[in-house]
Design a protein that fits this description.
Helix content: 10-25%
Structural class: alpha/beta
Distance between the termini: 67 Å
Strand content: 25-35%
Largest sheet: 8 strands, mixed
Low-confidence stretches: none
Mean pLDDT: 94
Number of helices: 8
Strand order of the largest sheet: 6-21-22-20-19-16-17-18
Shape: flat
Number of strands: 22
Radius of gyration: 23 Å
């Protein structure tokens, strides 16, 4: 090993999909490296310096390596499944949570019904895509392996539409959702003036590219038809850019796990409910209290319940459960509670549940670390983990969904 060239032996995969090497007692993270490989560094760049791992695979997207959306397309199925599930195993170990974790449940390529991108003006034109990995630079994309094919086909049209609403400087957020009969497009963060000529052009582009609704900062400016999603067998009309589960098959699995765990419950609470991913199917058999801080999501849920026959009563409330969780007193009378918070978790709500007598709690999370923390609180309050299911809703990324079922042991 010379001063001009340093070799690294890769011994493990990091949480973000980087290969980990140990040199002089310090860890070095190398993007794209796999365990068992040797990589060399010259100046500021790394390169494979030996035979590739037998776990190395060809990426399925031309943008892989530059695009910051995916980090694990180069892994074999076996290594990929181990890496994804191990994120949950390690989080539980660090939090002192002892539980059996089930096998990883996966989704298919091209299954994401929602893509959140950035758009901005560049000298060469409008760029639409993800930021490059580890950079503020925006990568203009022409394909996306994880997105629904209808979304991918719409990218040229969405790029043209973005050009109509982009300010002269800065980036905006672009959300594209595949609905039942077309696409829902939402722009957020624009300061551009949208006059009559721009609206007419936007309306024509929307018609040309199967876009049902175009909204700016939550306000619909073009409506060509109803934006409808089927969630748990119920038709829901989501407000522009509200939170939705990313993949329908993953959502269906989560619903199945939650409803099975609460099959005998008569009164349940769905906390951080969103548009009613769990509240609506649970209302087939139980009365439901659904709470979320997003008034637009709660409005979508309330509308769906009014338009659906055969549901038990669903009470909806707007409330910030992070700052004002349901108290032990308020939890009295509930047989079961499901909570699905943002990535920061539901620590305050878990602490209140730990003091309650609710028999069944189902924790749904997209962050293994905060899930493990919240489960440790519930276990400290007397709950026992019955089942944990990791779900790879965010294909090829470092994110992982999980559903954990907890119950209070029966009194003898």
């Amino acid at each position: 090993m010379s001063n001009d060239n340093i070799d690294f032996d890769i011994v493990a995969l990091g949480a973000q999909g980087d290969g980990i090497a140990g040199v002089s007692g310090a860890r070095t993270y190398i993007a794209g490296a796999l365990p068992g490989e040797r990589w060399s560094k010259t100046a500021a760049s790394f390169a494979l310096a030996g035979p590739p791992s037998t776990d190395r695979r060809e990426p399925v997207c031309r943008h892989y390596g530059l695009c910051g959306g995916c980090v694990a397309q180069h892994l074999s199925d076996e290594l990929y499944h181990y890496w994804k599930r191990d994120a949950l195993v390690e989080a539980f170990r660090m939090a002192g949570v002892d539980a059996e974790i089930g096998p990883l449940r996966t989704v298919g390529i091209g299954s994401r019904r929602r893509l959140v991108l950035s758009a901005m003006r560049l000298p060469a034109g409008v760029a639409l895509g993800f930021h490059q990995r580890g950079s503020d630079r925006l990568l203009d994309i022409t394909e996306c392996a994880v997105a629904d094919p209808m979304i991918v086909a719409s990218l040229p049209g969405v790029r043209l539409l973005a050009g109509k609403v982009l300010p002269r400087m800065g980036a905006i957020r672009v959300s594209i959702t595949r609905a039942e009969h077309g696409l829902d497009l939402a722009f957020d963060g624009t300061t551009a003036e949208i006059g009559a000529p721009e609206r007419a052009a936007i309306a024509q582009l929307a018609a040309d590219h199967h876009i049902l609704r175009v909204s700016i900062d939550g306000d619909a400016i073009i409506n060509r038809g109803r934006v409808v999603l089927t969630i748990g067998g119920v038709a829901v009309e989501p407000a522009p850019a509200v939170f939705l589960q990313a993949v329908p098959s993953a959502e269906a699995l989560m619903i199945a796990l939650v409803t099975a765990a609460m099959a005998k419950a008569k009164r349940v609470a769905d906390l951080f409910s969103g548009v009613g991913t769990f509240a609506l199917p649970l209302a087939r058999k139980a009365s439901v209290l659904a709470i979320d801080s997003d008034a637009r999501a709660i409005g979508s849920l309330a509308l769906a319940t009014r338009n659906t026959q055969g549901l038990k009563p669903v009470e909806t409330r707007v409330r910030d459960l992070v700052r004002e969780p349901l108290s032990r007193k308020e939890l009295e009378g509930f047989d079961a509670v499901v909570f699905d918070p943002p990535r920061a978790g539901a620590l305050a709500q878990a602490e209140a549940l730990a003091k309650s007598q609710v028999k069944t709690v189902v924790a749904v999370s997209c962050n293994p670390q905060t899930l493990a923390r919240d489960l440790a609180v519930l276990i400290g309050g007397g709950y026992e983990i019955e089942d944990v299911t990791p779900i790879d809703q965010f294909l090829y990324s470092s994110h992982l969904e999980a559903v954990a079922v907890l119950r209070r042991p029966k009194r003898r």
